[in-house]
Amino acid sequence: MGRLDERAFAACYQQHSRALWAYLFRVTGKVSDADDLVQEAFCRLLQAEVGGLGDVELRRYLFRIGSNLLADRWRRAAQEASWLDRLRGTTEAHVPPEYDDAVAREFAALRPRERALLWLAYVEGESHEDIAKALGLSRGSIKVLLSRARGRLRELLAARGVVRRA
């Protein structure tokens, strides 16, 4: 197994960059962060020994890289944040008006890990095992974490009147 050649890399980028960007944008809430993370994910893909992987495996590999980059960013941000920043809760995501709607606003109000879980499960259709690998969590915890994330999103949407309370 070797590295991707130029043609295979271009095809991979053409096929998966938009989906990866959408995932990273919805989790971070920032266009610039999504742009940076996609660029870094594809740079890492260039260096990886993935020449023999099929299309589905390459996509999963890219999303795993993206999720790992997100986790690195969250850890770094937590370490660098001052106690005052944490008290103020400055980690809230911003959704630009052109992407804004009721669901997007409430989705952005979720914690980053909740957004990542929901996106991977319901937009990307990944299995619990693949989500666990991508986010560095145990497979057994995914069902519970997804349930909590769905419940929190439901509460936010109900408070806004977008869905009825259960």
Topology, please?
Elements: H1 6-28, H2 31-47, H3 55-80, H4 83-88, H5 102-109, H6 112-123, H7 128-135, H8 139-160
Helix pairs in contact: 1-2, 1-3, 1-6, 2-3, 3-7, 5-8, 6-8, 7-8
Kindly list the characteristics that best describe this protein:
single chain, 166 residues, mainly alpha, Butyryl-CoA Dehydrogenase, subunit A, domain 3, 8 helices, 0% strand, elongated
> What is the CATH third-level topology name?
Butyryl-CoA Dehydrogenase, subunit A, domain 3
Secondary-structure element pattern, one letter each:
HHHHHHHH
Q: How large a portion of the residues is in β-strands, by DSSP E?
A: under 5%
Give the tally of β-strands. 0
Helical content stands at over 70%
The helix tally amounts to 8
Question: How would you sum up the global shape?
Answer: elongated
Protein described:
This protein has one domain: PhyR, sigma-like (SL) domain (Butyryl-CoA Dehydrogenase, subunit A, domain 3). The mean pLDDT is 83. It is elongated, with a radius of gyration of 17 Å. The protein has helices spanning 6-28, 31-47, 55-80, 83-88, 102-109, 112-123, 128-135, 139-160. It starts with 5 loop residues before the first helix and ends in a 6-residue tail after the last helix. It has 8 helices and no strands. By secondary structure, the protein is mostly helical.
